[in-house]
């Protein structure tokens, strides 16, 4: 498994909440799947818990390192606006299909040093596997009072949401690439 780069304070087991989800698709490549992850404006089309995607400045529509954007996420019937900054963006490399594609962003809401502050580090890895398969892994750590509350929900709301996101994205990719 490729190494995941966790910023200080966001290492799983030390952060307040952690979610890890993976899906393996057959007859799929990272090249085919990457645009469905790297184009946030597509996300609400297959994952309705995310909405109101808006890029800062003249960023977008594709995610690249340093890009900032906002979205609103619904969790447990409540809507939460989030600010996001891309920290790592390594698209698939057709000349090296063994190199994993990587995407990571930092999300936040609320003022710093307040009880309302909620921060997230969200990573995605896409890795071509032998036999024409593709692994899509997403992991997220969270810090803040809201993260503690989410960690205490059973089943874990973030694990459930990320699995729904992965499955819906996989279904959208399969439908678009069916031929």
TrEMBL record:
<protein>
    <submittedName>
        <fullName>SRPBCC domain-containing protein</fullName>
    </submittedName>
</protein>
<dbReference type="InterPro" id="IPR023393">
    <property type="entry name" value="START-like_dom_sf"/>
</dbReference>
């Amino acid at each position: 498994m490729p190494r995941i780069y966790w910023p200080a304070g966001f290492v799983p087991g030390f952060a307040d909440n952690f979610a890890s989800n993976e899906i393996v698709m057959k007859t799929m490549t990272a090249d085919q799947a990457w645009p469905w992850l790297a184009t946030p404006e597509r996300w609400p089309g297959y994952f309705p818990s995310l909405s109101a995607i808006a890029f800062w400045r003249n960023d977008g529509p594709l995610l690249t390192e340093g890009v900032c954007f906002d979205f609103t996420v619904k969790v447990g019937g409540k809507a939460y606006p989030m600010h996001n900054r891309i920290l790592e963006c390594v698209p698939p490399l057709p000349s090296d299909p063994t190199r994993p594609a990587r995407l990571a962003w930092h999300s936040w809401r609320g003022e710093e040093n307040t009880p309302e502050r909620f921060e997230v580090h969200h990573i995605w890895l896409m890795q071509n596997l032998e036999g024409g398969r593709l692994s899509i892994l997403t992991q997220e750590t969270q810090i803040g009072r809201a993260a503690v509350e989410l960690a205490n929900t059973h089943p874990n709301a973030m694990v459930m949401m990320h699995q729904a996101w992965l499955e819906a994205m996989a279904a959208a990719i399969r439908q678009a690439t069916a031929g």
